Amino acid sequence: MIARARPRAVDVVSEPDLAVARLAPEVSYKAKAYQALKQAILKMDIYTTPEPVMLDERALSDKLGVSRTPIREAIAMLEQDGLVKALPRRGIVVVRRTKAEIVDMIRAWAALESMAARLITTMARKRDITALRDVFKDFGPDRLPQDHIEEYSRANIVFHQALISLSESQVLVDMTDDILIHVRGYRQLTIGRKERIAASLPEHLAMIEALEARDTELAEKLARDHTLRLADYVEAHGQELFA
Questions:
Q1: What is the pLDDT of residues 215-239, one digit of tens each?
Q2: Three-state secondary structure along 28-97?
């Protein structure tokens, strides 16, 4: 009898280590509630009165159309961000910073905005820089900012946010977002003071001129000094702002 050849054993190949990421689940109500509440808080004017700004969990649940569980979870995330604080037997308060903390934040904004100005002079399109003038087109010798404080205050905030945006740096945008609610609040709170509003428009226009001229060093200096003057004002007069 002829012996048949025994078949060769097949080498077992282990499963390759595929570089695949776990599929992301559908965005949860918690994440949606967190994003909605965060954006709403960042748009709040929390420094217009000395009274604390309180959030009601039940009202938020009704407004967002979700149960209170994702609201509680979103609030916990916002508390980790330092935007809100849960107070026993009182509710949820939007966090306001001390004067010293605000001064520190404004100084940080000055550094970030001066870098934005530097980037704008080297990267931004001419028409986008010139468009900054449109922010203040309704103000001039015949229509002074001090006679239209609320309107000018809004233009002031738009201008400073536009500078950050024109830098085309997402890092600068993200970093300023974290302190925007506080710096914006104090800009609005101080812009009506006569010591500041008279110089505000000329300083803004000088910054635009330096940006248009692509004068990097001057634009950077003007942007930094403009915001540092706000820091100095808050440091000197912060206790009077709610008087």
A1: 999 999 999 999 999 999 999 987 7
A2: CHHHHHHHHHHHHHHCCCCCCCCCCCEECHHHHHHHHCCCHHHHHHHHHHHHHHCCEEEECCCEEEECCC
